[in-house]
Amino acid sequence: DRVERIILKDFAAKGGLFGSKRKRAYGYQTEIANNLGRSINIEVFEQIPVSRDSRISIEDLEFVPKLEADPSRGIFSWKLEVPSKHKQTAILRFMVVYPKDIDVTGL
Fold first, then answer.
1. What's the CA gap between 101 and 104, in Å, rounded?
2. DSSP E strand boundaries for 15-106
3. Residue 73 carries which DSSP code?
4. According to the model, what pLDDT value does residue 16 have?
5. How far is 60 from 71, CA to CA, in rounded Å?
6. 11-66 tens-digit pLDDT
7. Could you give the C-alpha distances from 33 to 6, 36, 49, 81, in angstroms and in order?
8. What is the mean pLDDT of residues 64-81?
9. Which positions ≥6 away from 66 have C-beta within 8 Å?
10. Which residue in 22, 11, 1 sits closest to 93, CA to CA?
């Protein structure tokens, strides 16, 4: 078995000349390869940032495959079945939106 995490997107998008917000997009792909001679069940845990500052928000949260998650907790999981000699992929995308005058670190 093999698990690999790939960064899909990590870039800053500044607001326009008169915009008061900055946006930073993130995307991650987790690929699980099953090299065994039998099917496996696996639970993949992932996390997103949770801000304690009301001026910082997480937007455009996307999970593939889709799942129900509570973004306020910041932790969620996929339960996947991976057939023998196959791969499964889980994708997470989100955007952090914050005022221009704040430096956001530690993501």
1. 10
2. 21-33, 40-47, 57-64, 75-82, 87-99
3. T
4. 56
5. 11
6. 655 555 567 888 888 899 999 999 999 999 999 888 888 888 899 999 888 899 98
7. 14, 9, 27, 11
8. 84
9. none
10. 11
